[in-house]
Specification:
The complex is a heterodimer of chains A (246) and B (313). Chain A is mainly α and 246 residues long. Helix content of chain A is 65%, strand content 0%. Chain A has one domain: Ferritin, core subunit, four-helix bundle (Ferritin, Up-down Bundle). In chain A, helix 2 runs antiparallel to helix 5, helix 4 packs across helix 6 and helix 4 packs antiparallel against helix 9. Chain B is mostly helical and 313 residues long. Classes of the chains: A mainly alpha (246), B mainly alpha (313). Chains A and B meet through helix 1, helix 2, helix 3, helix 5 and helix 6 of A and helix 4, helix 5, helix 13 and helix 14 of B. Bound molecules: fe (ii) ion (2 copies). One fe (ii) ion binds next to helix 5 and helix 8 of chain B. The site of one fe (ii) ion has 4 residues of chain B, from helix 8.
């Protein structure tokens, strides 16, 4: 259960960290506000999952200890969320892939036999649906905008697609949780994810990626090199003052 | 021609009379009302400068979001910076009621023809600056904005009411960061003192030049745009903030600061106005990078805005 919750939490924290770095860098003030909103939702979800994970942790770590004291090899987020914000297209396409995954994920988890998890997922589901509306809206606008935006959006889709399968990667211990109705079965989530992707990309007049290559490993701490830059920045103040209260 | 004839045939004279009446009655000037050109210009300049300040103000605090030392603080800071962007939006809308577009205002900010508050031209150098900025900068802003909730231009006054509520949250959150730091390790307490040392004088300067040198104040007061002078507001801020610094156990970096029993106010030392004017004129520690950051975000986003327009067609 600890590992399952940490995966949920880490996905959200690392994505929130990426989004939080974009505030005051967006194309319009409205987008600054939207990106902060979405980032805040992911951060809130991460905090919920960490605080619940704390109950299953032999070390009794709290949310900050989970976030600030684990290394790159201990983070178990999917490699997709750590990918950098090359341009606005990368930001919205990464968001779109995550949202297309989280909506069915939280739908299933909202009916989890674990009531605490179900409650957290039900709240997160509302947020994820709004995020999906926002991100798919932008994918369509960019795909169906100018030739430059179309090209940039297609590049982002092609670049980020190989990191999507990692969202669904699980652990052998998940089987039991799935059987108990606690965790979501990735095999159930995948078809809905695929349907969302193809519907939105079609409307955006973008090509579905055909390259079968997928980069896995995030769930076991085998990350892309980007995470090793994101974490030290995030953890710097906390680690510089061991034991301090903030 | 009699006086009566003049008012009945000259629309601007009718307008002026009605405008004067509104001000005299303490009622609001609304977008549809006639107003003197100079009033309109002053209002546009002031609201735009205020909006630009909210927008540029995202940068110094945005600088620490990714490094916030706890997830709770990260969340509070993100929400605060988001609020500031929201304030910018309201204020641009208020300015638009005066017949100027957001794009024009944006362009004037980028080209340096309109200013933003000089306070944002100072760097944020440690986490405790997030405390000091909330406590002092938002604190100074509120002192000014509480007055502006009663300003004569309706849309501006109404925007201020909404904004003031959020600003007082910001101020409290900033103070709470400071409080946590001064009760923390020796290093944390030293950081907090250093932040106060660096932000105190710039915060006092936020109220603008002394009344004797302030070119706009008399007219702004006559028009009901300002209800108190720069020096009056500055004094209010000092009186409110010094006891808070004492409560924190921090030293205000002013050897001349002392309580005056007779006046019931604090007396404080001279502000370095040469430094203030240098920052206003563009030679502060961060002027260039703040504008460069803003312009880059705008230019990087050009293709996105274009795509949005193309798709809408
Ligand atoms: Fe504000
Ligand atoms: Fe504020």
């Amino acid at each position: 259960m600890l590992s399952y919750l940490l995966r949920l939490a880490d996905d959200n924290l690392v994505l929130a960290q990426r989004l939080s770095a974009l505030i005051a860098r967006m194309p319009e003030l409205e987008e600054d506000i939207a990106i902060a909103n979405i980032g805040l939702d992911h951060l809130g979800q991460a905090r919920n999952f960490y605080s619940y994970a704390s109950q299953f942790d032999a070390l009794g770590r709290d949310e900050d200890q989970f976030a600030m004291l684990r290394s790159e090899r201990e983070f178990v987020n999917a490699v997709l969320v750590e990918q950098p914000d090359v341009d606005f297209a990368h930001t919205v396409v990464r968001q779109f892939f995550v949202d297309a995954y989280q909506v069915p994920l939280y739908e299933v988890l909202a009916a989890s036999t674990d009531e605490t998890l179900a409650g957290m997922a039900a709240k997160a589901l509302k947020e994820a649906r709004y995020h999906l509306e926002y991100s798919s809206g932008w994918v369509i606008r960019l795909g169906d905008g100018t030739s430059e935006s179309h090209e940039r959006c297609q590049t982002a889709v092609d670049t980020l697609w190989p990191f999507t399968a990692d969202l669904f990667a699980g652990e052998t211990s998940d089987a039991e949780l799935i059987a108990q109705g606690v965790a979501a079965d990735p095999a159930v989530l995948r078809p809905q994810f695929d349907r969302t992707i193809s519907a939105v990309l079609a409307e955006a007049q973008l090509r579905c990626p055909s390259d079968p290559y997928q980069r896995l490993g995030g769930r076991t701490g085998f990350h892309t090199e980007h995470l090793g830059h994101l974490l030290p920045e995030m953890q710097s103040v906390y680690r510089a003052h061991p034991g301090a209260t903030w | 021609m009699t006086v009566t004839d003049a008012t009945s045939t000259d629309p601007s004279a009718v307008g002026q009379a009605r405008f004067d009446e509104l001000l005299a009655d303490g009622r609001k000037v609304e977008p549809r009302d006639w107003m003197p050109d100079e009033y309109r210009k002053t209002m546009i300049r002031q609201i735009a400068q205020h909006a630009h300040s909210e927008v540029i103000g995202q940068q110094p605090e945005g600088n620490w979001i990714t490094r916030a030392p706890s997830l709770k603080r990260k969340s509070i800071l993100m929400a605060k910076v988001q609020d500031e962007a929201g304030h910018g939006l309201y204020l641009y809308s208020a300015a638009e009621t005066l017949g100027v577009s957001r794009d024009e205002l944006n362009e004037m900010l980028h080209s340096g023809r309109q200013k933003y508050s000089s306070i944002f031209n100072y760097p944020t150098l440690s986490w405790s600056d997030m405390g000091a900025v909330g406590w002092l900068v938002d604190g100074a802003a509120i002192t000014n904005q509480v007055m502006l909730t009663r300003t004569s231009y309706g849309p501006y006054a109404r925007a201020m009411i909404k904004i003031c509520k959020e600003e007082s949250f910001h101020q409290r959150q900033g103070f709470e960061i400071m409080l946590t730091m001064v009760n923390g390790t020796a290093e944390q307490k030293a950081m907090a003192q250093d932040s106060l040392n660096r932000w105190w004088w710039p915060a006092l300067a936020m109220f603008g030049p002394p009344d004797a040198d302030s070119t706009h104040t008399t007219q702004s007061i006559a028009w009901g745009i300002k209800l108190e002078t720069n020096d009056q507001l500055r004094q209010k801020f000092v009186d409110m903030t010094v006891p808070q610094a004492e409560y924190l156990g921090l030293t205000v970096p002013d050897p001349d600061l002392r309580w005056n029993d007779e006046t019931g106010h604090y007396e404080f030392g001279a502000i370095d106005w040469d430094d203030f004017w240098a920052v206003v004129k563009g030679d502060g520690p961060c002027n260039r990078e703040r504008i460069a950051h803003k312009v880059k975000a705008w230019e990087d986003g050009a293709w996105v805005r274009e795509a949005g327009r193309a798709h809408a067609e």
